[in-house]
Amino acid sequence: MIPQLPNKYATRLEDHDIILPGLDDRRSYRFVLSQLQLFTRYDRAIRDNDRGYLQGAAPGGYDQFRTLWARDTECPYQFSRYAVASLSLLDFTSRSSILRPLWRSRPTAYSHLSSSK
């Protein structure tokens, strides 16, 4: 059984990819696990003000994913926006570990958490 995502528009597939409907609801977009890992790493860099990481390009599809994810305004986790040209944070919500289940194995940022058995 696949755990429910906190976003009412997102559907997680068995391979952990996520499907989000487009803004016009006529087409859907599939985001693969490796993209999601890049998106969450980029979001973490924004929140941590990791300027070294942020000086590179944003992961492809990040802005589209962030926009589609943000349609659910009640979702407890929202992805951050960052203005690369001015190296400034545009917005983000409070930190949350809600995205931890997106990974098959824990990323380094969550290695301090004990696994439940």
From TrEMBL:
Protein's name in the database: Uncharacterized protein
